[in-house]
Amino acid sequence: MAHRLPAAAALLAAVALASAGAAAGDAGRGAALAEARGCGGCHGPQGVSAMENIPSLAGHPDEFIALQLILFREGLRDVPPMTQLAQGLTDQEVEDLAAFYAGLPAGHVERPPRDPARYQAGAVLAERLRCGACHLADFRGRAQMPRLTGQREDYLAHALAEYRDGTRRGTDTNMNAVMFGVTDAEIAALAHFMAQQ
Amino acid sequence: MHRRLLALGFAATLALPVLAQQAPVPAWQQSRSGSTNASPLAPHPPKLTATAAEQVPVAALRVPAGFKVELWASGAPGARMMTESPNGTVFVGTRTIGRVYAISEEGGQRRVRTIASRLTDPNGVALRDGNLYVIAINRVLRFDGIEGRLDAPGTPTDLTAAFGLPTETHHGWKFAAFGPDGRLYMNIGVPCNICEFNRDTHALIVSFNPDDSGRRIEAKGIRNSVGFDWHPTTRELWATNNGRDWAGNDTPDDTLHRIRQSGADQGFPYCAANWRDPAISRGPASCSEFSAPAALLGPHTAALGMRFYTGTAFPEAYRNQIFIARRGSWNREQLSGYDVVVARLDANGTVTGVEPFMTGLRDEAKNRFLGRPVDVLVRGDGSLLVSDEQNGAIYRITHGN
C-alpha cells in the first residue's frame, strides 16, 4: 500500500466518518457485563486471548464487535459456543460490550517466532490481494472490517479458511470473494504475516 | 445453507471458458485499475442494533411545503422492503439481520413483531389472498393466513424447490411483488460487479404463477432491480436499476426503466445509462439496440424501492407520479442519494424531470449520512411510508393537517 496517494488518504478521513450512527455503547457497563458473563475466561481478561483458536477482541472497531455479536445472537454466524453465549443479549448490551473491547489495547500474549520465508510470502500476498484496501494500510480495521494486527495466528488461519470454504459469511460476501481459490499454504503465510504486524 | 454456494456460483457463472482454470476476479475488484486501485472506498457498515426513537434523525428530514413527516415506527433493525395488508399491517423484509417484521397499529401505537428470522437476506415480501410470501436468497416461503397468526406464524410452506431460483449470494436478494396480472414478480441480479454471464438466467425480472409454475422473463439485461411497480392506468412495468461500481465517481447513473414489452432488453452488461461499458469488449458496438432508460437517477445513488402514487391524500399533481427511494452511494467520493425523489411523468408516460421529495439524511458539508431510505409504500389512507434501513425506522409522510 506504499503507493497510496495523498488524495486517497485525505478521502479516507472523510470515508471513515461517513456514517453518523454515533456509538451508543458504554464501555464501563460493557466491562461489568463481560466480567459477569465470563467472556474473559476465553478471550482473556483484557480481550487478548491466550487460547488456541479463540480470537482476541481488544482494539477491534466497535461496529465489528457489535455486528458479530448480533450475527451470533440471530443464529446467522452459527458456531459453538458463541451462538449460545449471545442468546438473550439486548442491543444495548451488545453495544456496551463493543465499546468495552474496542477501547482495550490490542496485543499478543505470545506469538510464534517470525519465519522470514513465510512472512515474505504473506507480505506479497497481502499486497496482491489488497487486504489493506479494506482493513486499512496498517491493518487496524475500520467499521465492519476487523483489526487483523494483534490477532492470533491460529485464529486468523481458521477464519480465512472458513471464508474460502464458504462456511462463514459475514455482513457481506467480500471476504468469500477475496479468499476464492487461495491455497492452505497461502492462508498460512497470510496469517503469519498479519500476526507479526 | 449458504455453504459453498458462493464459490460454486462464481465458478459456474462467472468464469469465461478461457479462464475456467483460474480464480475469477472478486466482485469488489472487478474493473478496478489505475487510481481506483488505491481507493479506500468500501461499502458502509450496516447497523443491526435498534436505534432508540429519540435518536432517529426525523428532525433532520425535509419535505415540500404542505407535507409533514413523522416517525411512524422504530425498533425494526435493518428494515427494507414493505408491503401492506388490507388491515393496515405492514410486513417488512431485511437483509443482513435475516428477519421479517410485521408492524401493526395498536391503540395509536405501532407494535413491531419479528415473524421470521435466521434467513439469508429475506428482502422480498409480497402478499396475496392473505398469504405472505417471503423471498430470501434461494428460498421461497409462504406463510398462510398470516394476519391472524402474527404471534405464532407457524411453519411456512417451503416453495424453494419449486421456484428453482439461482443460488448465488452476490446480488441474490430479491424484490418481490404481485403484478396486476396476479403473477409473482422478482428480480434476479447479476452475481458480479461487471462480467459476462448467461443473459437468460441472470440480470432479469421474472414472473411466476403463484403456484410457482410458468416462469416468464419480464425484463432482460437489467443488472439488479430492487424495486418495481406497475403504472396504475397503463399497467406497464417500471423498474429501478443499480449501475455498476468502479467506473468513476460519475459513471454510470442508476436508472429508471419503462418495460414497454414483456422481456424487453435493457442492455446490461454492454450498456448502462446509454453508456457503452468498455469493460465488455464483445457484443454490440452501440446501445441503440436496447431500450433506453426512462430516466437517469444519479451515479451510484442506489435507487431501490419505487411506487406510483395511487392515493388521493396528496395534491393532484402527485397522482400517478413515481416516488423512488435512493439508499445512497458508497462507491463515490462525494456521497450521493440518501433521499426520496419523485419522477414526474407527462400524459404519455414520458419522464419530464426527477425532483427531490424527502431530503435531509445526507450531510453535504461533512460528507456523511444520517440514514438510508430503501423503500417507499403508499398506504391505503394515501400516506407514504419510507423505510430507513440504517436506523431500523419507518417514516410517514402526509399532506395538509
UniProtKB/TrEMBL annotation, chain A:
Domain Cytochrome c stretches: 25-105, 117-197
Pfam family, one: Cytochrom_C
Keywords: Electron transport, Heme, Iron, Metal-binding, Periplasm, Signal, Transport
One Gene Ontology term, aspect cellular component: periplasmic space
Main localization, broad class: periplasm
GO-annotated molecular function: electron transfer activity; heme binding; iron ion binding
Binding residues for heme c 1: 39, 42-43, 82
Post-translational modification, as annotated: Binds 2 heme c groups covalently per subunit.
Binding site for heme c 2: 131, 134-135, 175
UniProt keyword annotation of Metal-binding present: yes
Localization of this protein: Periplasm
Signal peptide: 1-24
Name of the protein described by the UniProt record: C-type cytochrome
From TrEMBL, chain B:
Ranges where the Pyrroloquinoline quinone-dependent pyranose dehydrogenase beta-propeller domain occurs: 196-398
Keywords assigned by UniProt, alphabetized: Signal
Domain of life: Bacteria
Signal peptide: 1-20
Keyword Zinc in record: no
Protein name: PQQ-dependent sugar dehydrogenase
